[in-house]
Amino acid sequence: MQMILALLVGLTVLASSLTAAEERPFYEGKTLTIIVGYPPGGGYGPYAVLISRYLGKHIQGNPNVVVQYMPGGGSLVAANHLFNRAGPDGLTIGAVNMGQMFASQVAKSDVVQYDITQWKFIGNASITNDILIMRSDSPYASLEALKKAKEPARIGYLAQGDGHHMFGTVIEEALGTRFKSVIGYLGGGAADLALERGEIDGRTGNIITYLIQRSDWIKSGLVKILVQGGVVEENGKTIRDPRISNVPLVLELSSSPRVKKLHDFTALGNLIGKVYVAPPKTPDDRVAILRKAFLDTLKDPALLSEAEKLKIEITPMGAKEVAAILKDALAVDPETVEFFQRLRK
Length: 345
Known about the structure:
Layout: H1 2-23, E1 31-36, H2 44-55, E2 64-69, H3 76-84, E3 92-96, H4 98-106, E4 120-124, E5 130-135, H5 143-148, E6 154-157, H6 163-175, E7 180-183, H7 188-197, E8 202-206, H8 207-212, H9 215-220, E9 223-228, E10 231-232, E11 238-239, H10 257-271, E12 275-278, H11 284-298, H12 301-310, H13 319-329, H14 334-343
Parallel strand pairs: 1-2, 1-3, 6-7, 6-8
Antiparallel strand pairs: 3-12, 4-12, 5-8, 5-9, 10-11
C-alpha cells in the first residue's frame, strides 16, 4: 500500500512538473538574435542596437536580445542566410535592406536565394529619405556644377545595383549627366571615410544616417545636400522633407515620365527602409509574438525618448502593411525591370 501511495505521489509530482514546463514561456531563458545586413555604424546598426535594448521586455519570458552583423552585397548575404540557413525557431530575425531585396528579385539577379513572398515580416521601424551629398570643396557642389562638369563626379556606392546606386542613377537620368560610380565599399562607414579623405566627391545615402552618424558634416559645411528623394504624404504625394525643405526633389529636376517611373521604383526602399523579417518556416505563433512585441517596442516611451536623443526617427509599420506594399510593388512594368537589370551588369 505504501508503495502504491509513493508511486501515486511521484506521478502527481511528475505531472505537476510537466504542466509547469508546458506553461513556461517559450522565450524564457533564451537569446533572440537580430542579424544586421551591414557593418556597425551606418543607418541599420543604430536602429537594431536601440531595438535590442527594449524588445526583450515586450516578449513574455524576457529573452536576452543580441545584435549580430553580417555585411555583404547590400545585405544580400544576410538575406540569403536568413532565408536558407537560420533556424526557423523564432530565435532569429533580421534587419535587411528590403529595397535591395525587392530590386534584386525583380531583376532576377543570380545572387538571389530567397523569395520575398515567403518572408515572415515582423514590421518596419522607419520610413526614410535618400539624399545626394557632395563635398563642398569639390567642383560639384551644386546641381549646375554637376551638369556642366567636364569630368564626371566620383560617387561611392556599396554594391552594383543596390538602392543607393539606383537612386544615383535616377539623379543622372533627371540631370542628363553621368557619374563615375565607385563601387564596392563594405559598408556606409567605409564609403563615408572615402568621402572624408577626398577619394570620392560624393555619395547617396539616407538622411537619417547623417542626422545620427555625421550630423557634424552638414553643420560644419563639409558636405552639401543637393537632391532628395522626398517623403510621402498621407494622400500619396511626394513632397520635400521638412528638415531639408530647401533641397529639391528628384522629381523636380525633370518632368520625364521615365524619370518618374524609375524614381517610384527606387522609392520603395525608402517607404519600407527598416524592415525586420524572420525565416520563412518560423511557426506562426512565434511570429505573432514577435510582431506584437516589435510594434510595442517601437511605442515604448523609453525607446522613443532615447531615439529622440540619438536623432533616430521611428515611424512604425505593421507586417500586413509591409506585405501589401511589396505585393503591389512586384507588379512592375517590364521596361523598368530591364533598365535595372542592365544597371546590375
